[in-house]
Amino acid sequence: MVAKELLRVEDLYVMYKTDMEEVHAVNGISFTIREQETLGLVGETGAGKTSTALAILRLLPDRTGRIPSGNIWFQGKNILEMDHEELRRLRGGDIAMIFQDPMTSLNPVIPVGQQIAEALLLHNEEGLTREQIEDRVDETLELVGIPSSRKNEYPHQFSGGMKQRVVIAIALSCNPRLLIADEPTTALDVTIQAQVLALINELKEKLKTAVLMITHDLGIIAETCDKVAVMYAGEIIEYGTVEDIFEADKHHPYTVGLFGAIPKIHEETDRLEQIEGLMPDPTDLPPGCKFHPRCKHCMPVCREKEPPVFQEGDHLLKCHLFGNSSG
Amino acid sequence: MHRYILKRLLLVVPTMLSVIILVFTIMAVTPGDPGRMILGSSAPQSAVDALNREFGLHEPFLTRLGKYLWNVLTRFDFGESWRTRQSVFKEIKVRFPITLRLSVLAIMGQVLIGIPLGIIAAVKQYSTTDFFATVFAMMMGAVPGFWLGLMLMLLFGVKLALLPTAGLSTAAHYVLPVLTMALPGGSGLLKITRSTMLDCIRQDYVRTARAKGAAEKAVILHHALRNALLPIVTVVGMNFAFSLGGSVVIENVFSIPGIGAILVDSIKKKDVPQVMAIVIIFSVTYCLVMVLVDIVYALLDPRVKAQYAEAGKRKAKVKTA
């Protein structure tokens, strides 16, 4: 059974334009998320993961962020063509987002209960009364494991993990169809990370929400995702199911490098392996394959031509290594 | 909260003591002979000496200061004016309300000009509105108050003959002096509002509010402004104090019978009890406004309030932010 398509991103470009420079953050990415599916978006810092997420909600900074081309279809409507009112209903209602840093994501001068209630009030399609909304706030807080008696407290009275729970509660309060989790655990310590991930997984099951999980942690991907997209310099260079990414024999050299950077428990290693070099400067991207300056298998063609997409089932690879052999 | 307010109020006492000692000392060490000032240059030296003796000026400085403090603290007696031989409060009672009213109006004007313009300038950063608001703020910040007063007078009073320029007999009389006091202060407020709003607008919680689906107006007013208000309130309080002091100049320009003229006259004539009384009134007002600012601060920011949360009530959990 194939679930209905929920979100389709088509050839999306995002750039940041200032007086001094143009930053090409996202360069023509496409992917689909089906209902109740979890897609992992993985890549180094600066790969364009967050820009993609912000573009989906049209939350890119007004003055600098631009979407020069592409389409984002959500339940058959193009988000890029929505007006203010439609966007307002989309944000928080149909698509909710969990931000990276819980420490700064909550308004310090408003009690947490009110911050959750605000989302409910904004998307109050059922016409709930004030009391019913308060009850919902209590329910949502209990759902994420915070006693509802604490709803009148302010963010500074909560620990980091608890704050992230509040952020999750805000995101889930209106039963969104899609949840964008932008590195939800990066700012938390490891034990809390596990709790938060378990919580997201549990809620995903309970509320039947699709998730776009943005992370640089392959462990999180393995734990939570159905499909994975590996991003590099604003492009998706490998896409497939979790099994494809973790177990298939053909891989993009960058993905191989990413896996190589994880310490192996059964082998004695002194140093972690790393991918030599740095991410290319997004204001001045290299021609051809954007990974070629760091690639161990770099061929002359890589420096000149953008690699074609090689497909094997659902597994997509953007690399000359495979593109050449299979046409 | 009560403890917080009480603590702020108690802090007024040492502040006032320091002000009294400082101003009294300044008045004592600056040159000038009160007896001679009052009696004039043609009076015989013996009469001048007798008058100075009557004022107690033959006694050493510390004795005089001690006596003054003693009278003020135990009997609430601020003495008589040396010039008029009447209670120092007689003139203050009539004139201070005028100055206070001007300052309050000026502050209201500043708030009405500065905060909305500052918000608009921040929300529409680099727009034409922002440009004009910023240029206006720079001009008003650079111009001396008395010059601005004179120019407004010339324009609205003389050339256009729309508004009266001297005295305070009708509501129309208030327009020019209040404007003169409100424009420079308002421009400062505009700048601080703009920069704190710019800062708050870029915060993550504002993005969270947008991601929730809040309308832009609610995002700005409810989420960003509430956080930006903290420094703004402080500046409003400080501007109030400044306009009390600044009224001395403005009252002079617009011939307003406020307290400023008396203060200047008393300083010139070395009328120590009168100067002391006026300075004390100014300082007490200033301190009370600052207490008010602190209270507003606590109301706006739960983190400030939390530090003074009543003892025993979840004290362990309260963190200083």
CATH topology of the largest domain in chain A: Rossmann fold
Number of helices of chain B: 13
Query: What percentage of amino acids of chain B are in beta strands?
Result: under 5%
| CATH class assignment of the largest domain in chain B | Mainly Alpha
Please state the overall shape of chain A, judged from the principal axes of the Cα atoms: globular
Q: Outline the biggest β-sheet of chain B.
A: none
What does this structure look like?
The complex is a heterodimer of chains A (327) and B (321). In chain A, helix 4 packs parallel to helix 6. Chain A folds into 2 domains: 232 residues, Rossmann fold (3-Layer(aba) Sandwich); 68 residues, no CATH class. Chain A is α/β, with parallel strands linked by helices and 327 residues long. Helices cover 33% and strands 23% of the residues of chain A. Chain A is globular, with a radius of gyration of 21 Å. The model of chain A has no long low-confidence stretch (mean pLDDT 88). Chain B is an all-alpha fold. Chain B has 2 domains: 74 residues, no CATH class; 180 residues, MetI-like fold. Helices cover 77% and strands 0% of the residues of chain B. In chain B, helix 8 crosses helix 10. The radius of gyration of chain B is 24 Å and the shape is flat. The relative contact order of chain B is 0.14. The chains are: A alpha/beta (327), B mainly alpha (321).
